[in-house]
Amino acid sequence: MPARSHRLARVRGVREPTLDAPAAYPHSPPFPRVLVGIDFSPASLAGCRWALAFIAPGADVLFSHVVPFEREAGDATDASLAPSGVTPLREIAPVMSGGLGGFAATLDIREARTAVRVGRPSHFLDLLAADFDASLIVVGRRQDAMRRRVGEANVVERLARRTTRPVLVVPEGHSTAPRCIVAALDEGPSAVDVLAAAAALATACGLPLIALHVLPPASGTYDRVPSARDRARGLAIRSGASDLPAAAGGQVTTAIGDPTREIIAAGVGHGGGLLVVGKRGADASPVGSLGSVARELLATSPLPVLAIDGAAVAPTPVAE
Questions:
Q1: How large is the greatest C-alpha to C-alpha distance in the chain, in angstroms?
Q2: 167: helix, coil or strand?
Q3: 286-312 burial code (b ≥16 CB/10 A, e <16)
Q4: Given 136, 171, 206, which residue is the final one in a domain?
Q5: Domain containing 136 — which CATH number?
Q6: Which of 53, 55, 209, 214 has CB 3.0 to 4.6 Å from 202, enough for a Cys bridge?
Q7: Mind listing the pLDDT tens digit for each residue in 295-311?
Q8: Per mean pLDDT, which of 43-52, 69-78, 199-208 is the most reliable?
Q9: Domains: count for the chain
Q10: In sequence order, what are the beta bridge partners of 184?
Q11: Residue 3 counted as domain residue
């Protein structure tokens, strides 16, 4: 696809931390370029603050807002797209950009960029992330995210299905620092990528890594538990992070039960953590779809969820 000019606006921020985040991490963050989707709801604003404070401090950030509209436009300055009786979109764009810049100025970042588009949010957030070469997309999830409303329905799920880039979803009301990184491992091919991404985050943030493999209750007899534990350890070895859990104070563990419930319980049981999960699931769902566990976690988890695409490049661990 040819390069697109987005006329990204730059704004200067002030260094005023808004969350109780550490002043520095043991390593540089694994996500150097972050796209944040802002719809100006409390969930999106708080989710952005959380991600930039705990997961990607010091990142180069693009703050984006997509005005929901049926027709898709390459820019928010096309007055012909404005319906009759509605304020021309070229008048809306500076207002939205100014709002993004004002919010960025309240964060602990040196410099940020803003972009405003018109159309389907999931479509343009993916395009902006590709053109910005973002290593992470951040969105907030409202408590009423599943309700019917004006605009594109279920933006979080559609964005996760569309993009091959990692997507971090922060639920509304969550503000505490993560105490661990939970890598949810399944039988799918993306398990190695999930563990590699979780390992990079655990190293960067100085947090323990919990590598978890969950067996559904009806998957077989109890003698399968040792084999599940062996597979979890095997995945750690193949990802090059076999010694990380012990070195970081973490563990490789298994559980039997509902995968979604057990994954959340692992994070909550360790004081609250970031859940890292593969998008495609054990059945390796095709691109453009989500596995059942990933879909349920993205829609209902009380903890932040980082969804990794097996086809995407996992964050590169930073050298000592």
A1: 68
A2: strand
A3: eeeebbebbbbbbbebebbbbbbbbeb
A4: 171
A5: 3.40.50.620
A6: 209
A7: 999 999 999 999 998 65
A8: 43-52
A9: 2
A10: 212, 277
A11: no
